Fold this protein.
Amino acid sequence: MDTLSYKTVSVNKEHANKKWYVVDAEGQILGRLAQEVAQILRGKRKTCYTPHSDCGDNVIIINAEKVVLTGRKMEQKVYVHYTGYPGGQRVRTVREQLNKKPIAVLEHAIKGMLPKTRLGSAIFKNLYVYAGPEHKQQAQNPIELKINTK
C-alpha cells in the first residue's frame, strides 16, 4: 500500500501572499458589498484560509459616498453614539451620516462583519475607504474587482 503524506498547511501573516484589490462602491447595495469585502479581508475565498491568522487581502473602496440602501433605510436606519456625558446620546440617520462622514457608513458595516478580537482589529487595518474616485495606493498596483450586488 502506497502511503501519501498529506500535510495541513497553516498560513501565518508572513506567508499569506496578500494581494491588493480596488472596489467601486458606486451603485452597490451597502450590506451586500460589505459582506463581500469582509470575506475578502478575512481571506475566506482563499484555499489557504486559516481562521486564527490574518491571511486575507487588502481592499481599497472608492466612491463610498455613492453607496445605495434599499427600502426606506436612508431615513429609518440610525447610528447611535454616546459622548460619555449626561444627555450625550447622539443619533444620526444614514442620510446625515453620508453627508457628514461618507466613509464611516461603509467602515461601520464592514467592521460589524469581522471578528470582535485583536485579529478583527488587525484585519480591519487592511481596508482603505475613500469617498471619491481617487485613492493613494497606486504604487501597490491594485487589481480592479467587480462585485455584482445589484
Q: What stands out?
A: The mean pLDDT is 93. The helical segments are 30-42, 73-76, 94-100, 102-111, 118-124. The radius of gyration is 18 Å.
